[in-house]
Amino acid sequence: MYKGTGFLIKGSASFLKDGSEFELMKAEFPWARAALAVTIESVDQTL
Fold first, then answer.
1. In the predicted model, what is the mean pLDDT of residues 5-22?
2. What is the pTM for the complete model shown?
3. Cα–Cα distance between 45 and 29 in angstroms, integer?
4. Rounded Cα gap, residues 44 and 40, in angstroms
5. Three-state SS string across the chain, please?
């Protein structure tokens, strides 16, 4: 990779306000009210 290299990430996201993934994040960050779950559909490297 070179300086200035980036990535274009396409996908969808949702906020988790309960469940096991949220509880893991809440244990690490007690101030968090939600966790962001991202489903990646494609990734392209850019220059």
1. 95
2. 0.65
3. 31
4. 11
5. CCCCCEEEEEEEEEEECCCHHHHHHHHHCCCCCCEEEEEEEEEEEEC
